[in-house]
Amino acid sequence: MLSMPSYRFQRRGRFSLVLITGLVLAVSAARAQSIPDELDKLMSTVVANAQFNGAILVAMADEVVYEKTFGIANIETLENIQKDSQFRLASVAKAFTAMSVMMLKEEGRLSYEDDVRKYLPELPYKGMTIRHFLSHTSGIPDYERLMDEHWDVENRDSPSRKLADSHDALDMLADLSPPVDFEPGEKWEYSNTAYVLLSLIVERISGVEFASFLHDRIFEPLGMTHTLLYSPIPDPPIENRVYGYRVAIDGSARFPDDHHYLNGMTGDGEVYSTLGDMLTWDRALYTDQLVGRATLEEAFTPGRLRDGTEHRYGFAWFIGETQDGRKKVGHGGGWVGFRTHIEREIEDRNTIIVLTNHSSFYVGAIRAAVSNIIHGRDYEMPKRSIALAVGEAIRERGLEAAYKLYTRLKRENRDAFDFRPRQLNRLGAYYLSKDDVAKAIAVLDINVEQFPEDSSVFDWLGRAYRQGGDLNQAAKSFEKAVALDPENKSAIDSLEELNSM
After folding, report:
1. Sequence-ordered list of residues with C-beta below 8 angstroms from that of 358, at least 6 positions apart, any chain
2. What angle do CA 73, 221, 263 make, to 5 degrees?
3. 319 with 310: CB under 8 angstroms?
4. Where are the domains of the chain?
5. pLDDT at 62
6. Which end of the chain is more exposed for a tag (fewer CB within 10 A), N or C?
7. 359 part of the active site
8. CATH class, 90-361 region
9. Which candidate in 6, 16, 28, 91 is catalytic?
10. pLDDT value of position 197
11. DSSP state of 32
12. Does the predicted TM-score (pTM) go above 0.90?
């Protein structure tokens, strides 16, 4: 195992540990306290711990039991989030794309078994159907990776990189014809490309732009007056727009995180909406306002691969069960600063909608706690990021104090913090982005000490040594990563690159 940096044990000093609200995790959701009060206790804690900035709505049956907003909508103007604030939904918007396809199918204008080249003849791939696209089983290559490698490469690292849209993605797939990831129907693998192309299929069949189709056929008929498909080309104003941002992992600053050259894509995201409109959407899915019940049931039914294996995905909905075996569907999203989720317990008509704009890593844990509360179960407060605690300590007190803090918290407050290896990997990556290799190696050495059997920690340590110019130590770290996980592609590629030098 690689040794710890010697300076870690040479410095001495005192440091204060700020008490953290809500470190007691196992919380009894006693029936004596109302569900709204219990939800408020949860949300007050996560807001105080800087784990939440956004909006949340909880509905049970036909009643909204909790709806609140917290924090800022725009870090430049410091406007507060309101109930009519419009959030970027990210991949939660895929359900609107799927609904568009379902509507055209009911009208007899397409079949799920149609070859997609019937509508997109320029695609160079055989055997992919609309059903494959809807269910993420097509094997079509990832457009994001393709665009990153080939689109406006001279401005790759510049905010002025030319904006791209869905038609550009289609053209690039047609021109470059990258190989498929797998044969259609062979496996399940999440695909943003498939949903981008579905939006173009809707356009070609309907004869109108995808934004117009969504507005005229879904948003307006349902009364979703604060929902729209946005494109930065030509960047129309959104009255109550929320902007994404991120917080430096050492807590030092907040940065805008809203612009991206791929924000012009359609189908896989880019819809803005509000809590109220998303509840309207949820309620409409219990009716036949848009499509019939049989069509909706198929959207909420797990699919099957070519060999008959079931996968837990329908048409833009992940499919699961509540703890008591009742059906639920849901979908999450993440793009630029936004992290979003909708969860629907269909049989009980319970709905949880979470919209955030600060690159949150806590949406899943918050949603799980909310679900437990509404069912009267014990729940856990979301664990705090040990990376943030260590990063703040390094910034304020230095490396020695940070190491002491890490070991103390792991000994005394293990259940209150997320100590998984990826936490300090993230912090190490942050220091590498700042070209502070010494701090990165110090942090990643802690990870190696704590998780000597984890391949990822050696992979990241190898990256740090490589960036610092110590290619011998880099190779040793990558070799260890591959020995622990022979399928660690990142470490394998890095090692091959070093060996070829």
Report:
1. 53, 54, 71, 244, 245, 246, 247, 337
2. 40
3. no
4. 6-11+399-409+421-499, 90-361
5. 83
6. C
7. no
8. alpha beta
9. 91
10. 98
11. T
12. no
